[in-house]
Specification:
about 190 residues; 5 helices; mainly alpha
Length: about 190
């Protein structure tokens, strides 16, 4: 028999809500730091582009860390989606009994409506698509550039790392797509 009353559960719900909010902020910070590392890596390797021939065939290995960063970011995006859904669910439960409250204008619900790629105003959705699409384009251009540079040393064998990178990008792309769909605000119960 469950003897826990609704008021007894409220502090627990609030604690979980606060924890999820803090974890989500941490996820954003980790994501931004990782993007900074990736940008530094890109700039650093491009700055020495004329010296890369000293690496010989190993030039073909240079894109691998960026693929790892893209995979890690797909995980962060998925984590952000899971946390957003948890926060929104808890927030709806916590505010369910508050009369005369426009729930679309307070808390995480307001934030999600303003920034989520599925619900944000059109200019913000376009900006998000430019940001994510731009990062993707830079990653793909970098991979192509390094493979072209490596082809001078690997000749026809450059097809091997090209196929490996293409094979790695398929599940990473699928993970990004799944994570972006999980952010769909309208799918939260």
């Amino acid at each position: 028999m469950n003897t826990t009353t609704e008021p007894d559960r409220l502090p627990a719900l609030i604690a979980v809500y606060q924890s999820d909010r803090a974890d989500r902020a941490t996820t954003l910070n980790v994501g931004l730091a990782t993007m900074g590392v990736a940008a530094t890596y890109l700039v650093g390797t491009i700055a020495f582009y004329d010296k890369l021939d000293l690496l010989g065939w190993a030039i073909a290995l240079l894109p691998f860390p960026l693929i790892c960063v893209a995979a890690f970011h797909s995980q962060l995006l998925n984590l952000a989606a899971v946390r957003a859904r948890s926060i929104l669910t808890l927030e709806r439960r916590l505010l369910a009994d508050v009369p005369d409250l426009d729930r679309d204008r307070v808390g995480t619900t307001a934030t999600e409506r303003a920034t989520n790629v599925h619900t944000a105003p059109r200019p913000h959705r376009v900006a998000a698509l430019i940001a994510y699409g731009g990062v993707s384009a830079v990653h793909l251009a970098y991979i192509a550039l390094m493979l072209v540079k490596a082809a001078q040393h690997l000749h026809g064998w450059v097809a091997v790392p090209a196929v490996v990178y293409a094979a790695l990008l398929v599940p990473v792309g699928a993970a990004w797509r799944h994570s972006a769909r999980a952010l769909d605000f309208d799918r939260v119960p």
